[in-house]
Design brief:
Elements lengths: L3 E4 L2 E4 L4 E7 L9 E6 L6 E6 L6 E3 L7 E6 L4 E6 L8 E8 L7 H4 L5 E4 L3 E6 L1
Parallel strand pairs: 2-11
Antiparallel strand pairs: 1-3, 3-8, 4-5, 4-9, 5-6, 7-8, 9-10, 9-11
Length: 129
């Protein structure tokens, strides 16, 4: 059983930054693409960013492109989401997720939450105006 544990959330003023981390259990972390999704109150969960198994390919939602950066450290079984220039509309619970299969992932697949089968408990990010 894989466990994903997010950390690094919090309250920040607009324009500020936070670095979210997601630590994964297990020995096969490097075999799976990883993703970040978020869910704001009253809204559906939406894709934020994803990263390939090696970290060589990254994918972003248009709403965060240029402000957020996803990265991973396979030696530490950890994926990160650096969030800069935060806006009040970025307020949400942020979830990391592991892809279902140890194979490559296309951009379209990376954005589809159905392609992930393990999810963390979520980290609250609140951006005040």
């Amino acid at each position: 059983q894989v466990q994903l544990v997010e950390s690094g959330g919090g309250l920040v003023q607009a324009g500020g930054s936070l670095r979210l981390s997601c630590a994964a259990s297990g020995r096969t972390f490097s075999s799976y693409a990883m993703g970040w999704f978020r869910q704001a109150p009253g809204k559906e969960r939406e894709f934020v960013a994803a990263i390939s198994r090696s970290g060589g390919s990254t994918y972003y939602a248009d709403s965060v492109k240029g402000r957020f950066t996803i990265s991973r450290d396979n030696a530490k079984n950890t994926v990160y989401l650096q969030t800069n220039s935060l806006k009040p509309e970025d307020t949400a619970v942020y979830y990391c997720a592991r892809a279902s299969y140890p194979i490559g992932i296309t951009p379209a697949q990376a954005m589809d939450s159905r392609r992930y089968n393990y999810w963390g408990q979520g980290a609250q990010v609140t951006v005040s105006s």
